[in-house]
Design goal:
elongated
């Protein structure tokens, strides 16, 4: 049984093409110029693609914030006398909303074949996250060796994940201010061009080979600046150690 949250976005490229086409059509109706409509269509499609990627990053960020709560649920369940398996399956109803579907499938798998280790491996594959790897490896180790130190290990892992999450959140907020300013700076010339395109003189100026070359150069520089900005502002992901 394999899980993949990436399937949530498998149709995003169709929406990207549709949004690009609709935007290009709108600008063409406004300006009656294919040359002016083309860069706006590409920019709209590129913007939607970037937004789709940011949704994936947002999902990953929300997922990272959920793990300390998951650990608290496990510690609470084990302390109250529940077995490890019962504490894990309880996350399907009492855990953070974002992880419930995966643990519901884990619960169903345990009911079907009772393969605890296989279910944990499936969860690792689904989440593909360094923080979750630490939790699941601690659980597997506890299951195989008896687990007297599981509570202590979970508390240690939970403290580490909280500290790392708080630090990354602070950095992401500061980077967000810079990124938003850069987005506005990149969009401003194109919004101005769209307003000026309502004038016949602007349309005729950009309908020449020189005008088309200027638009192409501007589009290329905008794309290059956006890619470079995201590259500089990207936080490095902690490499997975327990990814087998």
């Amino acid at each position: 049984m394999n899980y993949s949250w990436q399937s949530l976005f498998k149709h995003s490229h169709y929406r990207t093409l549709l949004i690009g086409f609709v935007t290009g059509l709108f600008v063409f109706i406004l300006t009656k110029s294919v040359i002016l409509a083309s860069p706006f269509a590409l920019l709209a499609a590129g913007s939607h693609f970037a937004i789709s990627r940011s949704k994936k990053n947002k999902f990953a960020s929300q997922l990272g914030s959920a793990w300390p709560e998951v650990i608290d649920h496990l510690i609470s369940g084990i302390s109250s006398g529940l077995s490890l398996a019962e504490s894990l399956t309880g996350l399907a109803t009492r855990g953070p909303e974002i992880i419930r579907p995966a643990f519901h499938k884990f619960h169903l798998q345990l009911q079907n074949d009772g393969d605890f280790s296989g279910g944990i491996q499936n969860l690792k594959t689904y989440f593909s996250d360094q923080s979750s790897d630490q939790i699941f490896e601690a659980i597997l180790l506890s299951k195989s060796l008896g687990g007297n130190e599981l509570m202590s290990i979970l508390r240690t892992v939970g403290d580490f994940i909280r500290q790392d999450g708080a630090l990354r959140k602070e950095i992401e907020i500061k980077h967000g201010w810079v990124k938003n300013s850069a987005h506005l700076s990149a969009a401003a010339p194109w919004l101005l061009l769209l307003l000026l395109s309502t004038q016949p003189g602007t349309v005729s100026s950009y309908s020449t080979p020189t005008g088309a070359l200027i638009l192409a150069a501007g589009l290329g520089m905008t794309a290059l600046a956006y890619i470079w900005m995201n590259y500089l502002g990207r936080l490095p992901r902690i490499p997975r150690v327990f990814n087998k």
